[in-house]
Amino acid sequence: MHVTRQISRRTMLKATGAAAGAVGIGAGVGVGPAAAAGTTYAHPGLLHTGADLARMAAKVKAGASPYTAGYAKLTANRHAQSDWTPNPQTIVYRGWEARPPSTWPQNYGALYNDIHAAYQNALRYHVSGDSAHADTAVAILNAWSAKLTKVSGSADRFLAAGIYGYQAANAAELVRDHKDFQLERFQKMLVDVFYSVSEDFLVNHNNGTAAPHYWPNWDLCNMACALATGIFCDDQDKVERAVEYFKHGAGMGSIKHAIPVVYDDGLAEWMEAGRDQGHSLMGVGLMGTVCEMAWNQGIDLYGYDDNRFLKGAQYVAKWSLGGSVPYTPYAQLDRRPGIQMPTNVAPTSPTQVRPVWAMIANHYTKRRGLSATYLTQIAAKAAPEGGGGDYGPNSGGFDQLGFGTLAFTRDRAADTKAAPRPAASASASGAASAPRPQTAATASASPAAGGDLAATGSDDAIGWAAATGITALAGGLLLLRRRDRARQGDAR
Questions:
Q1: pLDDT tens for residues 62-88?
Q2: What are the φ/ψ torsions at residue 21 (nearest 5 degrees)?
Q3: What is the CA radius of gyration of the chain?
């Protein structure tokens, strides 16, 4: 086992272009206190920490906007119902094979529908305290870990492994303490079925295909799977390798390839903007997912390379809002074999929406206190964000777990320095029939004075104000009131 890990580590180092004789790739990653117990990470600690879950529950209980509208989106989704019945498969196939016999069934829809049902039920449990939803999430996840043996198909199998691997880990993270959850079996499935495919892609890019052949999303989803698996399985080696690939990987998903040009106006080109809007939105969501999971374990990728991701996300937000953005043809930047060569920025549609913005906007403006004009505007426009099932029946509508208005809206931090703090550990495993819901004791039900986005710049205030007054009646929840925009300068 030890020998295998060392070989795998050397292979990944080669793939990321590490210099010969370099020290371990985890050097300088700065995992911090979360790894104090050797390779043990804080749980819950993927997209949501214990404090995040407590905040959601407290805000919804208090009827606070926009949390109630976000929770109404969740409760109205058919995947978030406790009567969901799982449909596990032994082998999941994604993508048709052009050559004969190409007889496999493209059945990956069963997987993404069940993963989103597990995640939505688990999230609903933590907000409401209704254990029926935790029980449903556990039943779904246990059914899959008992049956699934392989992700297969065309090259699209790498997309399936990456996207559904990181999502499955996040759903399971929310119920890992449930006494009926088969934790070790699920960890084994994550490593053997999902992570093994993702690692193979990051190292070999589909049987030695030139790494630049694949668009950024292919690397990004597999990085997300690798990072989520490492944290969920308390495997520091996997975490470090994912972080190193994010910074220096050979493929197009590493940050300086996905965001190749930083302009003087503070925006940074998103490489896939030369392809189309939908895949650019997907990429922003995936990079944000990697950054958020890392942040919750004390690793700051959001701020890496002078907030390069902020500049790239601002670029995509402005472009998606209909603004004009510069585009340097990729052929002028990189002539490696197999590289994709978009030459102009693609057209956009204001109707194309993905639930990716609340997480990113709230990080930079609320946690960090930075101005992010276009992010705040587009997050307000997209609110309240839904999740899988709210953006169409096809796979693209399930690329993000979503519900960011509920999950990531936050009061402005008192200390906005870039010092991520790992999540506090959850309750003892197996203590009850369901994981203990986060209590409201640690979360404020109303914004602190001065804790709104107005303080980050007038343009940000205008952007977030567009979300004020949202009224929703769904899942039995009524958005009780509009906030007084003038009170304490509250512009949400």
A1: 999 999 999 999 999 999 999 999 999
A2: 80, 10
A3: 21
